[in-house]
Amino acid sequence: MNTAKSNGLSLCPKCHKLNSLQAEPQQCSRCHGVFYQRKRNSLQYTLAWNVAALLAFIPANLYPIMIVYQLGIPSDATILSGIGEFIDLGLYPIAIIIFTASIIVPLIKIIGLFVLVYKAHTGIRLKPNKHSKIYHILELLGPWSMLDVFVVALMVTVVELGFVTSVAAGPAINYFTITVIFTMFAANSFDPRLLWDKAADKNTVKQAQLPSVNLPATLPEEKGQK
Amino acid sequence: MDHKINPSFFVACPQCDALYDKPHLKQGQLAKCNHCGSTLIERKVDSIERSFHWSLAGLMLMFPAILLPLMGITFAGQFHQASLFDCILVLIDRGFFMIACLVFLFAIAVPIVRLAGALYISYCFKFNKLKPSLLNFFRAYHHLDNWAMLNVFLLAIVVSMYKLIDDTELSINLGLFAFVFWLICSTMSAAALDQDYIWDKLERAFSRSCANEHS
């Protein structure tokens, strides 16, 4: 594959202008922004944000996210118990939406980014074609897990009838927003071009070793066929 | 390899770094990368006019969307309604500063700044008032790409309506319609803005001034 890196060029991440790389950091000739050929320490940053997001996700699920006061009596609801209530009431579509937005999406983002970092670092079973698509999906999913935070914010404001009923936000909401924002930072700091770089590196290594590796590799296959 | 290669005749994929000859596109065409399938360059139809009008409409709809009540509830004889702006006031009042900040940033401030930015850029292009400060301005505009969450907020409104609909009487107000139209306008104005075209034109307009600076 003919890449910009192999030609000594690099793309400005902001205005998408190709620059010939003279210094690192390079100043873009079009938008005058300063950038690096690849995002710097991309994998380390992604990993760090990811671990922080995972840690914040634990209290987010343990503490109550919403406290409903009815006639002065409080009743707590965590994320999971809120979903359980919807299932009890038979509102399955909403239960599924909330479950996807507040549990599945953050978990998928965190796990997916861990896998991508691992693959980009080691290059084991790396299919850059597939994995860059996965990264694209993870990036798009990002903001949708803010859903729960906005729902709680709306409930607090709309249901405000003094003593009769009122809703307060629980401590989990802060941890949950931290999780969501950190996963967005993690996704932003990952550089998908590293996947392609690693795959290209591996290919060149393979081709260099090919003559010596080729012969023994064909033998076991023939045995298996017989 | 050789460093005589002229970068302005080539284009690289932002996702996988593959290098291509720069394609010449007509309006409405787009070029995709062979390796990863992401979009390389897109020429949008009537970009400046469309984004100008969409963002103007969005900025006008902003006031009813924020100030008019989104929905109201009646429960045990009491009626209460809330707008997006009330939402922030109440949250601050009750001490939930973090959520108040988030709602303000992601549902009010970022969309407004994006709309105003799109309006300013398309205004400058429409009436041919290009200035060098637009370079910095448009670069800063890209920082906000990921952080507008009006669509998530709309889904949140729908979900909280479902939550409230069993044991209260729910009424939908004018603010919700204004909010939906505001969402449509801001999405369309962001989608209509042709970044490659704008950067190209800015580069051509200011390349001479840059050359003078360097020499």
Poorly predicted spans of chain A? 213-226
Name the shape of chain A in a single word.
elongated
Instruction: Tell me how many strands of chain A there are.
Output: 7
Rg over C-alpha atoms of chain B, rounded to the nearest angstrom: 22 Å
SSE arrangement of chain A, N to C: EEEEHEEHHHHEHH
Domain count of chain B, please report it: 2
Please state the CA-atom Rg of chain A, rounded to the nearest Å: 24 Å
How are the strands of the largest sheet of chain A arranged?
6-5-7
Task: Tell me the count of domains of chain A.
Answer: 2
Distance between the termini of chain A: 38 Å
Mean pLDDT figure of chain A: 82
Major sheet of chain A, described briefly?
A: 3 strands, antiparallel
Strand content of chain B: 5-15%
The oligomeric state is heterodimer
Order of helices and strands of chain B: EEEEHEEHHHHEHH
Notes on the protein architecture:
The complex is a heterodimer of chains A (226) and B (215). With 226 residues, chain A is mostly helical. Chain A has 2 domains: 1-38; 39-192, no CATH class. Chain A is 62% helix and 11% strand. Chain A has helices at 42-62, 79-89, 92-122, 128-141, 147-158, 172-189, 193-225; strands at 9-11, 18-20, 26-27, 34-35, 66-70, 73-77, 165-169. By secondary structure, chain B is an alpha+beta fold. Chain B is built from 7 helices and 7 strands; from the N terminus they run ββββαββααααβαα. Chain B has helices at residues 47-67, 84-93, 97-126, 133-143, 150-164, 174-192, 195-214; strands at residues 10-12, 19-21, 30-32, 39-42, 69-75, 78-83, 169-172. In chain B, helix 2 packs antiparallel against helix 3 and helix 3 (97-126) runs antiparallel to helix 4 (133-143). The model of chain B is unreliable at 211-215 (pLDDT under 50).
